[in-house]
Design brief:
nine-stranded mixed beta sheet, three-stranded antiparallel beta sheet, 15 helices, 17 strands, 38% helix, TIM Barrel
């Protein structure tokens, strides 16, 4: 097995929970005064469980996500990066997620000086009314200021999250958000549709969303606008300019290995005879108490093909036939029949070297995935 290794660190607190969010996040009012000290110690203890599985590999990327990691103290982020530095590749991508309502110039400068070299800003919209509907803690002015401060702090590799398909949104409003984001020299854009998830406030109180034909018009016009501005759509909802792919997320989609530290984090490690996964306690206090729980479980052999495709087909670049064996140690014959079925349906192109989704397949990705269930 020759899978690359990435590291995810989860910071579990936010100012407040957004009504659409189903990530593992908790209001920071519930955090203890010495939480960061206890949490850092737990992260280190959990990390040590993974050291026997490294096989001389270096970590290619670190992603500090949440929650809202920009709420963390500069000392906490600096201590994290300094601790993990000896295990990283020299050119490792280090991403920190930030909420525009929680960033300050000095804090961003400190994050950058500590070694964070990629910033991901959860803007979602540049429209005040839209932001209110989404329950965000920032306004449009905060979003613009956050981007300006990020560039001033030294960041050159910046992702912006923008949501579309929001209540009351039409093509004009959706494209205006994109235009605002594209007015900055960002390298990456995550542009994705609002989905209603069970267990969220919106899941319990479902808002009226734009009709399907409106959603299709928004996407088609958005894709065209992004292409005109030199952004390549390389993943379902990810766009990059000048090949600034997100190394960390791309490793997920390539079915690479990753270590997930922190409350609610997940991990995946692959070997010649098995694929292991691990999922942590979601409650931050419960995680601190259970961080040394070595609860790996083996993924059933008959589930590997679906897991691989669930990830790999999100990337739109062609897939070489031998990649499946290289990352799962299973024969290509395990997936060949389903791929041929997808070809007959016009969802996939397959030859003797590679395969990839057709434009129809990109629109009907779930139909392709169902073939592997």
């Amino acid at each position: 097995m020759n899978n690359k290794l990435a590291l995810y660190i989860h910071y579990p607190y936010c100012v407040r929970k957004c009504p659409y969010c189903d990530f593992n996040s908790h209001a920071i009012s519930g955090a203890s005064l010495d939480f960061e000290t206890q949490y850092f110690e737990a992260l280190v203890k959990e990390f040590k469980l993974f050291l026997p599985y490294f096989d001389d590999r270096r970590i290619i990327s670190v992603f500090i996500g949440g929650g809202t990691p920009s709420l963390a103290s500069v000392e906490f982020i600096d201590k994290l990066i300094q601790y993990f530095a000896p295990y990283l590749q020299s050119d490792a991508e280090i991403t920190l997620e930030a909420n525009p309502g929680t960033v300050e110039s000095d804090k961003l400068k400190s994050f950058y000086q500590s070694g964070v070299n990629r910033l991901s800003l959860g803007v979602q919209s540049f429209n005040d009314e839209t932001l209110k509907k989404l329950g965000r803690i920032h306004n449009a002015q905060d979003a613009h200021h956050a981007l300006i401060k990020a560039f001033q702090a030294g960041f050159t590799n910046i992702n912006v999250d923008i949501m579309h398909g929001i209540m009351g949104q039409d093509v004009s409003l959706a494209l205006e958000d994109l235009k605002q984001a594209l007015s900055y020299d960002i390298t990456h854009l995550s542009w994705y549709e609002l989905t209603i998830e069970e267990g969220t406030y919106f899941g319990r109180h479902t808002p009226a969303l734009p009709a399907e034909d409106m959603l299709a018009d928004i996407e088609n016009n958005g894709f065209e606008l992004l292409k005109k501005h030199g952004f390549e759509r390389y993943e379902v909802s990810a766009f990059t300019k000048d090949k600034h792919y997100c190394v960390h997320n791309k490793n997920y989609w390539l079915f690479g290995d990753y270590i997930g530290l922190g409350a609610g984090a997940h991990s995946k490690l692959s070997f010649a005879n098995q694929t292991l996964r691990k999922a942590n306690e979601q409650d931050p206090i419960a995680y601190i108490s259970s961080c040394t729980n070595n609860s790996f479980y083996k993924v059933a052999d008959n589930e590997i093909a679906f897991e691989y495709m669930l990830n790999r087909l999100r990337l739109f670049e062609p897939i070489y036939i031998d990649h499946y064996f290289q990352t799962t140690a299973q024969s290509f014959d395990k997936i060949k029949l389903q791929l041929e079925q997808a070809c007959k349906l016009g969802l996939l192109i397959l030859d003797d070297k590679q395969y990839y989704l057709t434009n129809k397949g990109k629109l009907m990705l779930n139909d392709v995935l169902e073939l592997f269930l």
